[in-house]
């Protein structure tokens, strides 16, 4: 009948654990429940046998526990087990202790380390692979659909200009529209450039949205880690590795082994290359359907030129290859002359169309903005235009200040303080290293407004010095004419305001 020693413990441990868990903290309750169960057992002999089993198990449990480990809890003298309820309760506590203290925790770090990941992968690889395959299939199918519909409809980015403040620039808009509406046999890529704050992003977004279909807009992030993500987001791609269990663990492993940044870099590099491949494939399908390639716009690509210039090179090579194959048309938008200068030096430049420069607003557009859009008084608008010229970013910032009640003189002072900082960074102030060469450039420009790139470089002892100064937003490089000018009218005005320092 009840001859098996294992019958009671296993039966109760397996079948009653949920209720034990609830009652574990209230042993009295547990005991009364247990006793109730046994009021039905009439046979006294059975009761005696059961109690024998209890006693034996009690001894086992105690000795087993001592042999297993000497824990904090084991220092507390343990009461001898007298009922089946207590026995099962004890068993349960033993099991929980074992679960809490896995043997694998031999390393000292309390963090979830790569050894744990490895152990976990080794013990569960079959289930993980199965789960991952299912996830991959679903993500792949969903992505395929989402990417082709993203290219089909275009990203349609929204230009961030307040309602009623937008000044139209029809000529530039027309040029951009033509670039974004590619033709079947188009075999070039494009570079759109212009000094900081001339309105490149605003017009690019606006025309990308107007053209809509087949135009993908990517805002290139300043950190490489997010490049693949930004690209993926633009084409609506869900990354399998963001949902895959194995991938999450492998990421964790990489991060432990290579440091967080190293690990993330390896993953982003992989993600980024993959997203480019996916995009290429989806572009081929788009072209087959519509008879013309889609367009991808990389805005703010100058963010890559200093820290991740090799990524820029790869993008340029990709742009060349895909222009050759007419798979997609790439458009690079840059605020810094250093981007086209770098691109021009590479063989892939042979497939680039002449750069398109977005410069300052014309006088008419500037007054339209100041007087009609911002409601600035005509006299003040005239003074502002004389000081700043048509640089929209500066016109906007000065209008904001005037409308907040600041006087023109205060605004002017702030602009000159900011400009002086730029001179300081470029090391062009008196006693600074590039003062003499810079002064010569300044005087040449005051005489002729524009000088050739070579003439500019000749004022410096080394080309690197010329490059260093050219990057600091005092002078501007114009790739389509290969010339150098002042970067903005406020720079020129600052120089005239400090004639004794700069003018011979
Ligand atoms: N046509 C326009 N009408 C009204 N406001 C504009 C226009 N173009 C740009 N702006 C405003 O001028 C500011 C600078 O514009 P935007 O960011 O487009 O310049 P950018 O050339 O892309 O600058 P960066 O070189 O820093 O990338 C923004 O605040 C924008 O709202
Ligand atoms: Mg921009």
From TrEMBL:
Ranges for domain AAA+ ATPase: 187-362
Pfam families reported for this sequence: ATPase_2
Gene3D superfamilies: P-loop containing nucleotide triphosphate hydrolases
MF (Gene Ontology): ATP binding
PANTHER family named in the record: CHROMOSOME 1, WHOLE GENOME SHOTGUN SEQUENCE, ORC1-LIKE AAA ATPASE DOMAIN-CONTAINING PROTEIN
Protein name (Swiss-Prot/TrEMBL): AAA+ ATPase domain-containing protein
Annotated source species: Diversispora epigaea
Origin organism lineage: Eukaryota, Fungi, Fungi incertae sedis, Mucoromycota, Glomeromycotina
């Amino acid at each position: 009948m009840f001859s098996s020693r294992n019958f009671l413990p296993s039966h109760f441990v397996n079948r009653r654990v949920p209720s034990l868990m609830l009652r574990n903290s209230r042993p009295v309750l547990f005991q009364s429940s247990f006793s109730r169960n046994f009021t039905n057992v009439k046979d006294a002999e059975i009761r005696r046998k059961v109690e024998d089993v209890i006693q034996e198990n009690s001894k086992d449990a105690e000795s087993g526990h001592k042999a297993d480990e000497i824990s904090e809890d084991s220092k507390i003298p343990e009461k001898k087990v007298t009922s089946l309820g207590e026995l099962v309760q004890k068993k349960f506590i033993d099991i929980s202790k074992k679960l809490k203290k896995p043997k694998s925790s031999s390393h000292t770090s309390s963090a979830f380390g790569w050894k744990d990941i490895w152990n976990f992968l080794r013990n569960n690889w079959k289930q993980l692979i199965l789960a991952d395959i299912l996830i991959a299939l679903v993500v792949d199918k969903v992505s395929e659909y989402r990417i082709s519909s993203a290219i089909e409809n275009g990203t349609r980015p929204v230009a961030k200009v307040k309602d009623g403040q937008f000044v139209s620039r029809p000529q530039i808009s027309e040029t951009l529209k033509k670039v974004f509406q590619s033709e079947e046999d188009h075999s070039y890529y494009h570079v759109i450039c212009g000094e900081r704050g001339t309105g490149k992003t605003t017009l690019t977004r606006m025309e990308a949205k107007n053209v809509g279909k087949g135009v993908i807009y990517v805002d290139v992030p300043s950190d490489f880690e997010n490049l693949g993500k930004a690209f993926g987001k633009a084409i609506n791609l869900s990354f399998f590795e963001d949902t895959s269990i194995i991938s999450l663990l492998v990421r964790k492993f990489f991060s432990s082994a290579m440091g967080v940044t190293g690990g993330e870099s390896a993953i982003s590099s992989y993600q980024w290359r993959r997203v480019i491949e996916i995009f290429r494939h989806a572009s081929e399908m788009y072209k087959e359907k519509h008879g013309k390639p889609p367009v991808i716009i990389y805005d703010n690509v100058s963010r890559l030129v200093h820290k991740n210039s090799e990524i820029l090179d790869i993008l340029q090579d990709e742009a060349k290859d895909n222009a050759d194959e007419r798979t997609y048309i790439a458009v690079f938008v840059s605020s810094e002359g250093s981007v086209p200068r770098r691109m021009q030096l590479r063989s892939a430049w042979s497939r680039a169309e002449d750069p398109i420069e977005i410069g300052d607003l014309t006088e008419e557009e500037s007054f339209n903005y100041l007087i009609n859009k911002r409601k600035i008084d005509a006299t003040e608008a005239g003074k502002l235009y004389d000081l700043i010229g048509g640089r929209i970013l500066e016109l906007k910032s000065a209008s904001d200040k005037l409308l907040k009640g600041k006087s023109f003189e205060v605004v002017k002072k702030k602009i000159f303080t900011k400009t002086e900082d730029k001179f300081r960074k470029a090391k062009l102030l008196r006693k600074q290293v590039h003062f003499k060469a810079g002064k010569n450039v300044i005087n040449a420009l005051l005489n002729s407004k524009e000088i050739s790139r070579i003439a500019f470089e000749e004022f410096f002892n080394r080309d690197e010095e010329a490059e260093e100064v050219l990057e600091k937003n005092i002078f501007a490089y114009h790739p389509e004419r290969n010339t150098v000018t002042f970067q903005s009218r406020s720079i020129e005005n600052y120089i005239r305001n400090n004639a004794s320092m700069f003018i011979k």
